Structures are given as structure tokens and as C-alpha cells.
Amino acid sequence: MIYAYLRVSTDKQTVENQRYEILKYADTKKLSIDQWIEKTASGVKSVKDRKVGGLLTRMEKGDIFLVSELSRLGRNLMEIMFILHECMEKT
Prior knowledge:
This protein has 3 helices and 3 strands, in the order E-H-E-H-E-H. It has a 3-stranded parallel sheet, covered by helices on one side. The protein is 38% helix and 19% strand. Strand 1, helix 1 (16-29) and strand 2 form a beta-alpha-beta unit. The chain has helices at 16-29, 51-58, 77-89, and strands spanning 2-8, 35-40, 64-67. By secondary structure, it is of the alpha/beta class. It starts with a strand and ends with a helix.
């Protein structure tokens, strides 16, 4: 499966620029996105309680997780590192 993750911090922001960048990358690599995950996230919830947490538990070896930039994964470096570690465990 190829997952694309889009996240904004407030409902006043849009995910369209992130979608564009992921689609552009996928096109150059000849990838077809199987599932888009969109989230408007506050920094209050933990990673495990957000949609990305559910995605991380569903992912299997060989799955691809696309994001337009690492800052979309979390509010701070520790969250981002945790998510990257979880992804690396799936390889």
C-alpha cells in the first residue's frame, strides 16, 4: 500500500499544496497513491491518538508512507523521531 499523509494545524489552512507536492513526487516515481489520510490536528493529542497513529499500526513491511515535509508529521522533533522510528521498524 502507498499512503499519503496530509496535515494542517488549523481548519483555516488547506492541504492542497501538500497534495500537489506528493502527487508531483509520485508521478516522477511512477507511484499510485492507494489511500490519502487528511488531518486537521491540534498539538494536544499524542501521536497514538491521531490518525497517523492508526496508520502506523496498519502499515506492513513494504508499505510506502509519503508526506510533503517532515514537519507535517508532528509538532516537535521527538514526535517526528518517534514516527520515523515506527516507520523504520516496518522495513
